[in-house]
Amino acid sequence: MKHLIALAIKFAMITIVLLVVLTWAFDVSLLHTLLISLALTALSYATGDMLIFLNAGKPENQYGRNTIATVSDLFMAVAIIWLVGWLLTGELAAMAVPALICAVVLSAGEWFFHQYVDHTVVPWYNDYKSAKN
């Protein structure tokens, strides 16, 4: 259940950023924005949050793991938004700037999301006491 809540939070964060940047600022359709949000949520949660963040260093080095995971999320977000956006819209060059803007804004949110994951979703990883224990 904790993973579903985390996925919902991540999807909401990504969707809001992509709606503002892609749909409102760059006229990407709402359907395409939602599809990009879904793809980015699934791929970045599985790789960035569950694989890279949890394995990028010692459990007690949360700052180092968070830095590595946030930087990898930045590059992953640019690649996914650009690639999926290009596949959906047919506009390769036109998706470059919006992908970069979205990725930078999302990286700021990812820094805090990783802390949420560390303390709430996988508190056992650092031997944190869960809020509901």
TrEMBL record:
UniProt name for this protein: DUF2512 family protein
InterPro entries noted in UniProt: DUF2512
Source taxon at top rank: Bacteria
Pfam families in alphabetical order: DUF2512
Transmembrane intervals: 7-26, 32-56, 68-88, 94-113
Claim: Membrane is one of the keywords in the record: yes
Species of the source: Planococcus dechangensis
Keyword Transmembrane helix in annotation: yes
Keywords: Membrane, Transmembrane, Transmembrane helix
